[in-house]
Amino acid sequence: NGGLSTESWKVLHSKQTDKGQTLVCLVDMETVRTLESRQMQIYLGFNKVKLSILDKKKVEHEDSADQSAQV
Hints:
Blueprint: E1 10-17, E2 20-28, H1 29-37, E3 41-44, E4 47-50, E5 55-57, E6 68-70
């Protein structure tokens, strides 16, 4: 998962299910671009995890610090 900076990720919701855990996180747009280049897949331990974008919100400013997405 090199190149991913998870320090700024913010967990908005967490839910335990029979199939595992679902997390909704707020991440910066740079992270979204990195995830998209990796087909939205990351490694958690020895397991590959598939992520999906729930909502991309871009504000009027083009500064990536002002943009976010829920994954």
